[in-house]
Structures are given as C-alpha cells and as structure tokens.
Design brief:
Strand content: under 5%
Number of strands: 0
Structural class: mainly alpha
Oligomer: single chain
Largest sheet: none
Number of helices: 6
Order of helices and strands: HHHHHH
Shape: rod-shaped
Length: about 150
C-alpha cells in the first residue's frame, strides 16, 4: 500500500508540473524569440523566489513567536523542585554498589579505630580559686608550685 501511495504521489507531481510548465518548443525559434522566452522564464523564477522568501520570513516569525510563548509559559509555571528525602546507607550498602564484591572486604570501621584510655589520675579536682591564691601567695607558694611541677 505504501509503495502504491508513493507511486500515486509521484504521478500526481509529474501531472501538476506538466500543467504549470508545459514543455518548451525551442526548435525553429529565432534568436529574438529565444531572448523573449528567457526573459519570461526569468520573470517566473523571480516571482517564485519572492513567494519562497515571503514564506520563509513568515515561518521564521512564527517560530520566534512560538519560542517566546513557550518561554512565557515556563516563566508562569515556575520551576518546581522535588522535595528530597534523606536516605541512610550503611557501609555495606555503599561498598555493595561496586560490581566485584569478592575483592572488597566488608568494612568494619570501628574495629580499625584506636582505643584511647582516659587517665583519671592526672585529672585534678577543681577547687575554689580564691583559696588556692591565698595558699600560693608569697615565696612558699611559688616553691610549692616548683616542687609540684617536678
């Protein structure tokens, strides 16, 4: 069916071209008549070019108008951003995203951390600073501080 339609369109096009532009009879024409024929054909070409140019201008104008209207529609609608949801992923999920899991070991980040022991002995009790100032005043107090530092 498609082949038949394309053939039909082809024959229709040929028929329209033959009606609009009859075959030229150049045999037996003098130089003057050939020049007149060329002038007629040139004027027909000019008319066709003018109409083609006018159509192109109209098409460009309509395309620009369509683009401006689409831009106005987008501005009126505004850009909506979807609300994002927080996703919690474990270390196994992150590492599981890789394709070759045989090479990757399960990450145990807490096992690699160093343990820190808090020394309670070094911690001094916080006392009232006024009592401490009176005890440390004078040469005796400075001697106590010097001995305590060693």
């Amino acid at each position: 069916m498609l082949v038949a339609e394309s053939e039909e369109l082809k024959h229709e096009k040929e028929r329209v071209v033959k009606e609009c532009f009859p075959p030229l009879k150049l045999s037996g024409l003098s130089a003057q008549e050939l020049q007149e024929l060329c002038k007629e054909l040139n004027s027909k070409i000019e008319v066709a070019d003018e109409s083609r140019y006018d159509m192109e201008v109209k098409v460009c104008k309509n395309e620009k108008e369509i683009q401006s209207l689409n831009h106005k529609i987008i501005e009126l609608k505004g850009v909506k951003r979807p609300s994002l949801k927080r996703v919690k992923k474990t270390t196994d999920d992150v590492l599981g995203a890789y394709s070759d899991t045989s090479k990757l070991m399960k990450a145990d980040f807490k096992a690699k951390l160093k343990t820190v022991k808090k020394d309670d002995e070094k911690r001094e009790e916080v006392t009232d600073w006024r009592k401490n100032v009176e005890a440390m005043s004078g040469m005796d107090g400075r001697k106590k501080m010097f001995n305590a530092g060693q």
